[in-house]
Amino acid sequence: MKARRNKKQIPSFRKLLKTSKVKLENKLKNKQFKQQSTLKKYRKEQRKLRQAVKDAVSKRPIPLEDPKGKRPGKRIEREEEEEEEALPLDMMDEDDLQLMKDLGQRASFLTRDLSSSEPVHVKKRKREHVIEKYEKIPRALQTAPEKELIHLLPIKDKSGIIPQTREKPVIDSNQDEEDQEEVELEEEIIEDPVRELTLEEHLTERKKKLQEKKMHIAALASAILSDPESNIKKLKELRSMLMEQDPDVAVTVRKLVIVSLMELFKDITPSYKIRPLTEAEKSTKIRKETQKLREFEEGLVSQYKFYLENLEQMVKDWKQRKLKKSNVISLKAYKGLAEVAVKSLCELLVALPHFNFHNNIIVLIVPLMNDVSKLISEMCCEAVKKLFKQDKLGQASLGVIKVISGFVKGRNYEVRPEMLKTFLCLRIKEIEVKKDTEDINKPKKFMTFKEKRKTLSRMQRKWKKAEEKLERELREAEASESTEKKLKLHTETLNIVFVTYFRILKKAQRSPLLPAVLEGLAKFAHLINVEFFDDLLVVLHTLIESGDLSYQESLHCVQTAFHILSGQGDVLNIDPMKFYTHLYKTLFKLHAGATNEGVEIVLQCLDIMLTKRRKQVSQQRALAFIKRLCTLALHVLPNSSIGILAINRILMHTFPKTDLLLDNESQGSGVFLPELDEPEYCNAQNTALWELHALRRHYHPIVQRFAAHLMAGAPSEGSEALKPELSRRSATELFETYSMAAMTFNPPVESSNSKRKDKVIQGDSFLNEDLNELIKRHCNEVGTHLPLDFTKYLQSSLR
What we know:
This protein is an all-alpha fold and 799 residues long. Helix content is 59%, strand content 2%. It has helices spanning 13-58, 72-85, 94-105, 130-136, 173-191, 199-226, 234-240, 250-268, 279-283, 288-320, 331-351, 358-368, 374-390, 395-410, 417-421, 434-440, 449-455, 458-507, 514-524, 533-546, 551-566, 577-586, 597-611, 619-633, 638-654, 691-696, 701-711, 724-727, 731-737, 769-780, 790-798; strands spanning 149-156, 161-167. Strands 1-2 form a two-stranded antiparallel ribbon. Helix 6 (199-226) runs antiparallel to helix 7, helix 14 packs parallel to helix 18 and helix 24 packs antiparallel against helix 25 (638-654). The radius of gyration is 51 Å and the shape is elongated. The chain starts with 12 loop residues before the first helix and ends with a helix. Residues 449-487 form a coiled coil. This is Nucleolar complex protein 3 homolog. Residues 213-307 form the Nucleolar complex-associated protein 3 N-terminal domain. Pfam families: CBF, NOC3p.
């Protein structure tokens, strides 16, 4: 039987040498540690012995009767002499130290506490604490003057009556003298009152103070802008001026500081979000430049946070009508401060959507969009619109939409319509599906290996390969990732918008928010899922038939319906005839005065309903709309007339057979029924566009030009053709171009240059000679007042 093999490997010489070194080091360390511990123990014992000797010396027996003439000074001197006679421990032998140690452990009259009544031979506790011994020694009390006590009413407790006393306060004569001096100084100050300044002097003083403050603010701001990293601490100094206490310049200085800090943060803020450092990052060693940058970022974030908190507090103070204790600023001035604070918040919302605390600014701004003050509400709504228009990715827009949706729901849909009108500025134009993303980012077709071999050399193939690799990496890094993220954010934003719209359509149909909802649905209808189309069209038709809507709201319903049908709704088999009828009926209800806002919606609806759906529109319907639109053009403002005539021109080009309206001979049977609200059955082919003759004599030159153009059959060439600046523009563009909202004639009226005449004609010379004689004769006749007999003239007229 073989011997069992040992599994443990034999260590090499190097390993043994290494382990032996480690062992020697460990032994040396242990030896040193033992020496240190023994030394510590010895020092501890020496300290205890010294303490025991001191205790024995201090516990000398005190005679019970101390003679009166004895002075305490002698006693102290004697103790000091005895301490000098005592040998130091370092000069004593080991045998003497052991003897003293044994003596210290024994109980004798030297170590006995005379104040205790215990017998001498009582067994002492082992290892008695030095502090406890020290506490038992009687102390020599300082000779303090006895304080007088005032006896108060006793308190009764379970244990019995407890007497109550209080020390009588000792009046210090020095304190009295100081108080008297202070009173005298105050009297002297009162005796010399400050001279009151006049109004001019006061204004001059205020102007001087304000100029000093402005210079100080400018100096701090310029220092921060010149070197932000080094002078970041000056931001705190500038922010402290928000608490200006001088009542003369407090409001103005605070406003200036708010605006200055806002502009500073817009300039020095980096283009990335600053995150807090982790514990591992804080502990690691870094270069000086990195440390300086970190300090700058931390200081910037903290000061920016405090600044936003100050602005929020100003707005809250104004909303709550709350005065501060200092009363430096009046309640009236709080409104001006709050407006400046809100303006700064709006600027930061738009300028720094990427930086820290942007969501906090959104939470502050959104409730102010529904504020009672129209100025603040418009300011906040405009800021949100601007943010929506410039937000390309959609991250900031999503945050705002979430807060607005929650706010509208929390207020039970009782908010300003302007809040929902901001949704119209969202930059969402694409349908978030994979097919569209593939169409947008079509993959670039690279050359195959055979094509490269035929057309390129070896070096060119090498360069081409590297170039294609780089292009692939760039496309993966930029295009696909950013597009996917953008589409995801847009989808989420649109879902929240439609949820808000559908809630209002379902629960608050009589809310003033309905026009804004319908306008929003009209804009984003092409992005709604096809599954909701049937239900949405039924709801829109029900709203129109209810009769509770104004003409403008009903026009929005029609516009929304045709936006739905013009996009993905083409696949649905829905007859929109009821919406055509409603628009035809609503045309004569438009406001013909200055508030002709409905005309723009009508122009948009006609473009979708007639021009873009030309294949589904019959000739009878087109003729009826052209006739009614020409009649409408007689009643509205010039810019509306121009837009309507431009639409008629497009319809006459789209439906060529409508030129029969320019002929006065009737076609077919029947009579035109202008009061009938059904465009299919009003027999519009039996009438003519006589309105164009009246419009040809319109006071506006562009309306005259369009009327003459349509009477000639809307030619594209010839003398009656329109100029390119009129023919190439759409009806909506022409409506906006010639708008009279600025209360000016557009185009401006040409000034007539009156020629200077030598002879000025006056008075009667303008009239004919015969007419002058007739006027004179009638003026010279004496007027006689006779009773008027109407019956005589009536009988004669009847004969």
